[in-house]
Each structure stands twice: as C-alpha cells, then as structure tokens.
C-alpha cells in the first residue's frame, strides 16, 4: 500500500528527495513532523469552521494554507524517505 501511495504522490515527494546522505536525521524528527502536520490539519479545520461562521470568502485563505502545510508534512512524514525528512528539517 505504501508503494502505491508513493507512486500517486511522487510529484510532491520528489521535491523533498535528495541523493545526499542525511547528516542530521533522527527517528524523532519523523514523529515530530507527523505531529506538526496533524496540528496544522486540525488548525485548518478550526479555520474552516470560523470561515463558515464569518460568511466571508477571504477567510478561506488560511484554511487552504494550513491544510496544504499539514498535508505535505504528513505526506513526507509517513511516505517520505529519511533524506526527505532531513531536508525538511534542514542542515543545521
């Protein structure tokens, strides 16, 4: 199942894939990335509820931004390689 999902989402995953050896990868980075991604998705749901109450179209901008950030974080955290997770965290 994981390989099928990786093939479906390869355009997003290939942005974060590198051929370099991850110098700063720790398994906890993947866990934290999944937690942060989940929090962003929940934040997008809360923003969507507030946007529906305000009846303004511009209130959907945070919903889209938070959902995209959360979705990509969860995608890389669950389906990405160690290199992809290390690239999100940076080289510091």
Structural features, described:
The chain is mostly helical and 92 residues long. It has helices at 2-8, 10-16, 27-54, 60-79, 82-89. Helix 2 crosses helix 5 (82-89), helix 3 (27-54) packs antiparallel against helix 4 and helix 3 (27-54) crosses helix 5 (82-89). The model has no long low-confidence stretch (mean pLDDT 89).
Please sum up the structure shown:
With 92 residues, the protein is mostly helical.
Task: Describe the secondary-structure layout.
Layout: H1 2-8, H2 10-16, H3 27-54, H4 60-79, H5 82-89
Rg, rounded, reads: 15 Å
Structural class category? mainly alpha
Provide the residue-averaged pLDDT. 89
**Helix proportion range:** over 70%
Number of strands: 0
Shape, per Cα inertia axes: elongated
Order of helices and strands: HHHHH
**Low-pLDDT windows of residues:** none
Separate helix tally: 5
Tell me the distance between the termini.
33 Å
Measured by DSSP, the beta-strand proportion falls in under 5%
Major beta sheet summary: none
């Amino acid at each position: 199942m994981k390989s099928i999902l990786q093939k479906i989402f390869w355009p997003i995953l290939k942005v974060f894939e590198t051929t370099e050896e991850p110098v700063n990868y720790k398994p906890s980075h993947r866990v934290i990335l999944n937690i942060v991604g989940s929090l962003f998705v929940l934040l997008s749901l809360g923003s969507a509820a507030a946007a529906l109450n305000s009846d303004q179209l511009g209130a959907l901008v945070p919903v889209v931004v938070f959902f995209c950030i959360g979705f990509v974080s969860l995608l890389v955290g669950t389906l990405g390689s160690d290199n992809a997770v290390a690239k999100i965290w940076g080289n510091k």
